[in-house]
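I hope you will forgive my troubling you with a question about protein structure. You will find the record immediately after this paragraph.
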Amino acid sequence: MTDTYSVVRWRSSTDPVAESRGEMTWDEMREMLAPGATLWRRFESKADLPGWSPVALRAGEDGVYRRRAALVDTVSCIVLDLDAGDSAEAVVDALHGFSACVHTTWSYTEEHPKFRAVIPFDVPCLVRWWGVVWSCAARWATSRGVRPDPAAKDPCRLYYLPAWPPSGLAMSRCLEGEPLSWRRLMIDYPAPSSPAPRAPSDAMVIQRSLSSGDGDGDARAGKYLSGVERGLSATAEGGRNAAAFRAGAALGGLIAAGSASDAVWRGRLVGAAMATGLDQREAEAAIDNGITRGTTDGRALPDRH
């Protein structure tokens, strides 16, 4: 288990050359990421905010240490941008048992909370594994009730240091626990070995059951959609949009049959699609397009009453 963590500091998001780089203890990182209220800095513009990256960086051919993914050797922490409106309590509960620093981001408001969570690894993650590890970590976080922003998966991403946002609201908190094992993430939260089930064909069976007046139809529909949700959340890159569309089509067909709630299940399926790495816009578009297709096709089914 490592005692120090590789960190690179940046003057701002507009300056790609490293200001400093080196090793920090977890206590030093906590002071940097969860400062006391009197130490929070104020800036007029987000572009002026200093940043950091949890990486070991090597120099380019010109001898300069630049913010480029190709120059990263290892990643020392997983950083999750939680911009989906999860509450502070939900974030803290999700990270229970692990060492972590949580702080509000520049665009935090009471109406739409936004947090950044930093969880140290037990040993540095080799950059060649980073894409897989980040996806596993996203599935891990989603399983614990929070929804990370997939845009934050660049191994050399700059993360702004805590600063007072325009809203004037800010908080930070450190949690005590164990560091996170990226190797365990790969074992416990792997990408699926097969694509998500083809929802529309199975959904048709349930629709026919509903239209025939089978009293178990509603329960079967809920159980089926839960399976679709689980399968969708585990879909690997390359089939995510198609799987989200099929899941939406299954929901649309069941809505047309009078068995499923659009308001409840749409949100659950969008969340599952985001767990695969789709951003919110992509996830909503794929699910909504599928719902439209499934609802349209479902209108030809006999009425359940």
